[in-house]
């Protein structure tokens, strides 16, 4: 234990703890997820970057445990209200992200974020986006206060499908679709898993494609099309796992239906916890 640390938290997870029954010990990343701040994986990134303090001191050690009810935690200088049990009534939302809106909780460039499209009462519950959708893309983005589910939905171990509608322009030949279906290698060297793709319609030199992705490579569709000399005119995510846009207008949001939430939880509970 370092000299600045109070007796209220330990960084060595194997160390004994007094009065642990009165003040349960939990991992710091789990406590942040239970408080609805972010997923456990995102909490680890915050810890490593020095943005989390416990009892006024920066903590950078993954695996740090804290005593709920005793230790004071802050993230980026803001105090966090810690829960001694997981939040039961989580928020689960679907939004149709418009163009030029970013999928982050805060944006240093002061661009509009998906959270700013929510009413104030929902913003106060601090939902966070599940994954990313780049600024010039549109469509379905999930937001939730459920850190556990977010971890599972964004973890590379899980190959849950996302469906996109992509309008492209360029010389269109069947071999380009077959390249995507076979699993292509990007110009930067990343090997992609096979993509399910089919043309939905063609008109005026433009082709509408439906693509089903199960791999979380950054800007994958745009980079695939770039390498195949197809110019992306519009890119819309229409479905994420069992959740679809269901006619949501750009900028609109809705609560997930109970059966959608149950479907997500059943899928990922069956697959187990990522390590």
Describe the structure concisely:
With 275 residues, the protein is an alpha+beta fold. It is 21% helix and 26% strand.
Characteristics:
275 residues; 26% strand; Structural Genomics Hypothetical 15.5 Kd Protein In mrcA-pckA Intergenic Region, Chain A; alpha+beta; disordered N terminus; Alpha-Beta Plaits; elongated; 4-stranded antiparallel beta sheet; 7 helices; 16 strands
Topology of helices and strands:
Elements: E1 9-10, E2 25-27, H1 28-34, H2 40-48, E3 52-54, E4 57-58, E5 65-67, E6 73-75, E7 78-79, E8 92-97, H3 120-123, E9 128-129, E10 138-144, H4 147-154, E11 162-169, H5 174-182, E12 196-203, E13 206-213, H6 220-227, E14 231-240, E15 243-244, E16 253-255, H7 258-271
Parallel strand pairs: 10-14
Antiparallel strand pairs: 1-5, 2-5, 3-4, 3-6, 6-7, 8-10, 8-16, 9-10, 11-13, 11-14, 12-13, 14-15
Helix pairs in contact: 1-2
Question: Could you describe the 3D structure shown?
Answer:
The chain is an alpha+beta fold. The chain folds into three domains: 71 residues, Structural Genomics Hypothetical 15.5 Kd Protein In mrcA-pckA Intergenic Region, Chain A, CATH 3.10.290; 95 residues, 2-Layer Sandwich (Alpha-Beta Plaits); 79 residues, Alpha-L RNA-binding motif (Alpha-Beta Plaits, 2-Layer Sandwich), CATH 3.30.70. The protein is 21% helix and 26% strand. It has seven helices and 16 strands. Strands 8, 9, 10, 11, 12, 13, 14, 15 and 16 form a nine-stranded mixed beta sheet that branches. The chain has a four-stranded antiparallel beta sheet with strand order 4-3-6-7, with no helix packed on it. A three-stranded antiparallel beta sheet has the order 1-5-2. A hairpin with a 2-residue loop joins strand 12 and strand 13. Helix 1 crosses helix 2. The longest helix has 14 residues. It is elongated.
């Amino acid at each position: 234990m370092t000299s600045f640390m109070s007796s209220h938290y330990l960084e060595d997870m194997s160390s004994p703890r007094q009065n642990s029954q009165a003040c349960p010990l939990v991992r710091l990343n789990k406590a942040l997820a239970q408080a609805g701040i972010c997923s456990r994986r995102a909490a680890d990134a915050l810890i490593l970057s020095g943005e989390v303090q416990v009892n006024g001191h920066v903590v950078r050690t993954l695996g740090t445990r804290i005593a709920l009810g005793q230790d004071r935690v802050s993230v980026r200088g803001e105090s966090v209200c810690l829960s001694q049990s997981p939040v039961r009534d989580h928020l689960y939302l679907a939004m149709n992200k418009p163009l030029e809106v970013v999928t982050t909780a805060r944006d240093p460039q002061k661009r509009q974020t998906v959270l700013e499209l929510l009413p104030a009462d929902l913003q106060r519950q601090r939902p966070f986006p599940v994954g990313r959708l780049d600024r010039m893309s549109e469509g379905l983005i999930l937001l939730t206060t459920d850190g556990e589910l977010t971890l599972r939905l964004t973890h590379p171990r899980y190959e849950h499908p996302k469906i996109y509608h992509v309008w492209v322009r360029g010389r269109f030949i069947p071999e380009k679709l077959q390249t995507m279906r076979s699993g292509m290698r990007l110009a930067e060297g990343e090997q992609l898993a096979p993509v399910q793709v089919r043309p939905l319609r063609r008109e005026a030199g433009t082709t509408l494609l439906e693509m089903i992705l199960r791999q979380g490579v950054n800007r994958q569709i745009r980079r695939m099309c770039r390498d195949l000399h197809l110019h992306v005119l519009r890119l819309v995510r229409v479905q994420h796992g069992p959740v679809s846009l269901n006619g949501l207008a750009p900028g609109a949001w809705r609560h997930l239906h109970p059966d959608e939430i149950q479907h997500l939880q059943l899928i990922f509970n069956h697959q187990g916890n990522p390590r």
